[in-house]
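Deviation from plan, reported transparently: L-rhamnitol complex.
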Amino acid sequence: MKTKNAYEYAKELYSKLGVDVDKAIETVEKTPISLHCWQGDDVHGFEGAGELSGGIQATGNYPGAARTPDELRKDIEKVMSYLPGKQKVNLHACYLETNGKKVERNEIAPEHFASWVAWAKEKGLGLDFNPTYFSHPLAENGTLSNADEGARKFWIEHGIASRKIGEYFGKELGQTCVTNFWIPDGSKDINVDKFGPRARYADSLDKIFSVKIDDKYNMDAIESKVFGIGLESYTVGSNEFCMGYAIKNGKMVCLDAGHFHPTEVISDKISSVFLYCDNLLLHVSRPVRWDSDHVVIYNDELQAIMNELVRNNALDKTFIALDFFDASINRIAAWTIGTRNAQKALLNALLEPTDLLKKMELEGDFTSRLAMLEELKSYPFAAVFDYLCEKNDRPVREEWIADVKKYEKDVLSKR
Ligand code: RNT
Ligand code: ZN
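Because the crystal trials were delayed, the predicted structure below was used instead.
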């Protein structure tokens, strides 16, 4: 093995600190990361939708976006060929397949996702799901908080239909599907009645969740947000709304790294969530000045998120999903960069001698704690990651870039 010497040296160093390196590797291998299908086509989907709405935006026009479900699946397969460990695939309702037939959002059904399921079965993947509450004419004045009862009913039906698709995924694939509710509802300017829309949103969720589905097959999450483009002054599904609803109703919150004020971080929220919730969904993303959904890079916050999951013993209770959509670079590369970074940060977190650090902290030895945390930053975790990639028969370090370039030349550039 080409990575062996460096790996053995790294293992020796970590072992001296009492870290079980093999166990860390094994944990990364079995921790699924849910790949968001929407990085492949700039959140476009297959409904023949026009412009992306809901206050989110994919900027850039790099060639090669997937135009069909088959292209998207091929692209995801390409990405997975560069990733060690386990993946799930995260679908949005607007990625349905209808053979050209117009199917309204409140009429979507398992049959429209049968090809995704057949593919997931073949690849041994789990699937996650998201109702699509944007890029639709009926979403213009809000969705689940809409004051118009007809529109609200339509979106409630969409939510119920989505959870049934989640249940179908869970049953067919033997892995729990997480169905995540995010609605863009809010307003550009100051809302006089901030209570009414939130009360309607809560009531809509109650109606959607009143349809009982076994947790074994499908679990639900609600994702909060601070603002969206054109929706700057008021967001119905704020953090307080979602936390309150989730705790009261035994649902999961979804913490998206881009959905808070610029200096507010989700890593600090994880320990509080687990005091009151059994499970957590993460949307690992990267905000740059706003909720820009940049490709996830290996930065302090990514590391802090993974450290929190490991330090709180929360990996088994957390669903890790990614959420970014960069249309300005090769999309396969974007997915690969972000996912490999999430896995690297997870591995590094697992290689931390947490008990040793906690002991220093409890004893009040903050000098040693800071010194050790800083020394650990230059420990050779990358050698362990290289080894993990090679062990999984996946490219080591930048080896994958040349292959992406070839795929771009042979496949993407012809689209
Ligand atoms: C939007 C939310 C949401 C979406 C996806 C496409 O701000 O982050 O999760 O990105 O549903
Ligand atoms: Zn998100």
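The pocket of L-rhamnitol (ligand 1) is lined by residues 38, 43, 56, 130, 182, 223, 225, 256, 283, 291, 323 (CB under 6 Å). We consider this an acceptable substitute for the interim report.
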